[in-house]
Write a structure and sequence with these properties.
136 residues; alpha+beta; 2 domains; 4-stranded antiparallel sheet
Length: 136
């Protein structure tokens, strides 16, 4: 993780706060983020990377929290969440993931069009690696 990556992530966050963001600009920022990661990976020796693997994050003693900024498809969101955002008049507002200490929690916030309160769904579960030690 680097300061340059932090700047790019802040720029992406600012872009997504606007309802009318440009896909070309977003893809450009994501490309910059990937290039930054590739540069860091090439500059560091093999095995000494500071970027933790998902199994290290899941099994570690520190819980990390993430906010979903972008998904490639609706199927991706349905695979992780409840899929209730597909109900008529419902709109997915936010998705948050908290992972660590062998536990995972996914929070999705769904708004219903009209004078209805937001719905917060919480999905909880345990996380472990499969016998090969590489798969969650």
């Amino acid at each position: 993780y680097s300061e340059r990556a932090d700047v790019i992530i802040k720029q992406l966050t600012t872009l997504f706060e606007d309802d009318k963001w440009d896909a070309t600009t977003v893809l450009s920022e994501i490309s910059s983020l990937i290039e930054n990661a590739n540069e860091r990976e090439q500059s560091e020796s093999v095995g000494s990377t500071n970027v933790p693997e998902i199994r290290t994050i899941a099994g570690g003693g520190v819980r990390r929290s993430y906010k979903m900024a972008w998904a490639g498809s609706d199927d991706t969101i349905c695979h992780m969440g409840t899929g209730l955002h597909n109900v008529p008049l419902a709109r997915l507002q936010e998705v948050f993931l908290s992972i660590g200490q062998s536990r995972a929690e996914l929070y999705e916030v769904i708004s219903i069009i009209g004078p209805f309160p937001n719905v917060k769904n919480t999905l909880r579960g345990s996380v472990s690696t499969i016998s090969n030690g590489k798969t969650l």
